[in-house]
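Before relying on records like the one below, remember that each one covers exactly one chain. Contacts with other chains, cofactors or solvent are not represented anywhere in the record.
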Amino acid sequence: MSLLIWICSCRLYIYIYIYEDERCVFAAVLKEPQRRSPSSRPHLDIYSASGVSLASFVWKSGPVVQLGWTISDELLCVQEDGKVLIYDLFGSFKRHFSLGQEVSQSQVLEAKIFHSPYGSGIAIVTGCGRFTLTTNIDDLKLRRLPEVPGLQGAPCCWAVLTQDRQTKVLLSNGPDLYILDNTSCTAVSPPGLSPESGSILQMSVSFSYKYLALFTQTGLVWTGTSNLQAKLSEVDTKMRSAPKQMVWCRRPRAQQPSVVLMWERLLLVAGQCSDTIQFPLDSVSVLVPELDGVRVLSGSHQELLQEVPLVSQEIFKIASMSPGALLLEAHREYEKLSQRADEYLREIKEQCVLAEAVRQCVEAAGHEWDCVTQKALLRAASFGKCFLSDFSPEPFVTICRELRVLNAVRESSVGLPLTHTQFKQLTVQVLIDRLVHRRLYPLAIEVCRYLKILEFQGVSRVLRHWAECKVQQTDLSDEAVARAVCAKVGDSPGVFYSHIAAKAYESGRPELAIKLLEFEARSGEQVPLLLKMKRSQLALSKAVESGDTDLVFTVVSFLKNEMNRGDFFMTLRNQPLALSLYRQFCKVEESQTLKDLLNQDDDHDGLGNFYVSAAFREPRLEGRLALLQNAVDEFNKAKNDFNAKATEEEMKLLKFQRKLDEEKGAGLQGLSLQDTMEALLNLGLHKHAEQLCRDFRVPDKRFWWLKLRALAEKQDWDELDKFSRSKKSPIGYLPFVEVCVKNHNQHEAKKYLLKVSPEQRVKACLLLGDLEGAADAAIERRNEAELGAVLTRCPASNRQLMDRLQRAVAKK
């Protein structure tokens, strides 16, 4: 696909840039009146390929060296001072950047806009003869290329090459040819080009960067590979003046690649043979190289010059007997109701080439521009495939759909004169993007539906672009735009109202953005934009409504950095969930902030808990006691008697521990009440342990358990015996038996067997291994479960005991 132009016939000085690419079709014209006055300014006009004006505005910036288009349909304007201004298709300014201070000082003499695997790039040559380039304007990295020996100012001609993902500059300085890369300037010589050919006046690189053409001072056209490793041809044009333009004309997989040269009133085609083809030109024209040909544009019309596709040659050449030609003729005779149609069909069938004939007609139809010829070829193909039983209809159906789309976009109201080859290279998705960029939304939607593209890849994508364009219209109110967008977009898959709202905000319509966000179902997409718009309160409310704690915390963190402390705290008081999350954060990261927050809210209970937590982080005892006292005061203010009492007892325990540490060196500081009692018992400080039990009203059962375990672990059996006799055990005497057995002292355990209550005596006897005693106790109690437990423990060799137990069970 090429970038085409409509040239105005008025008497103007016109600076024209025509960009050729398989993705863009536009022309930018910078016009300057012939009669200049101090107040006059140039105009920049943008046209579609069919000459429809898209934009026109007064150029108020500096002198322009080059205009060009990016791969995303953006207009680049390269100025003499090294500044590059970027506009969209409709003349709206988007952004600008500079090519560097050095370029600004030495001025830009020439510039070229090119396309590489990295994106759209710019190469310039300055007044001091130095080259600078960037391969991607969206990720600007300027590279200053090495100096060229003897070059002062602009070279005779130069071109940009992209080879092996590396961008180079090929230039001619008189008869010398150089290649500039990142690190070196290398003199090169085209293979087979005689030194007598003179200086190189013009050069051209093919669309794919694979081939190179050179025009010399003696009128020779040399063609070869762009790496200068092979020569294709050398043709004498008999012309001594340099052509205005020289471009390649080559189809993919072409048999005869050619170079097209244009002078003032002459068009010359040079191929691999020594002969040339010449066409006279009636008016000033412009050549636009394309993927599969060259477009010749004048002020009144445009023509496409290309190598005729091989399949078209076979069908339409004079006296052709190819299968496709015979099938086309057979269908013509069939429409005339002539019997010769049967003769042609028989001839095709006898050669077994009917499938090939159908394929040729289908393929040739794709290369035709005339709708009548397209229909004739497709009807012939449809006629032929009726006589085939195993022919797949897919190619025929596909070409019919594609031609219908191509004929629609070729209309002058659309202005996309694509060939079928360009369409296949472009892909449907990119074609839809181009229609969307031209704001041809109804046609884009119809193409999506006709080609049955998935909704989120087709119609939804078009609707998203439409909505983003709609919100930039200033002639409608916010309410009207929001209603229109909601009515049109609805719940289309893949269209997010947050993206549309972001576009509205970028266009200076924050209220419209808020209205659109109301239709966004995902809170996670609403909140970031609201924060960007400085609508913090609304963002916090939306985050809380979502129930997403991570999202709420994100908003809280943002508010903390953006607002002063007083306003921040007041904002959180209205959102309990946000306040709770922030308190959790402060507990870990910012304890002082938590204290201030609790003070502001008069949360005495929370302050009490804060002081308690702080006390346990305090290493010094005095500091810990002071913090605990503060906690007691706050709990009392909150009338939380339980917490206040518990805190006072903690202070009492700390003081008790300090006293014993000072007197006995017990190392009790920081232990809990139970751990403290265990430590005292292990140290043999029984009196102090009993005193602690009384002071803190520890239950007797708990204390007896602690002391029992401590004495058994120390194996202080005498003290354990005294302890058992001190008073009646609140926990019974089975635990005494258990701890003795656990510590392997059967003898000591038997002392407490008689004190064990009858209900626990069976278990105690079993612990001691006294089966006779366990049997007596179980028989005496007549307890079936206990009898069964003893019976299962009784060995098979003790038949007397087993019989006795079994009789007891039977009596039971």
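The chain is about 45% helix and 20% strand.
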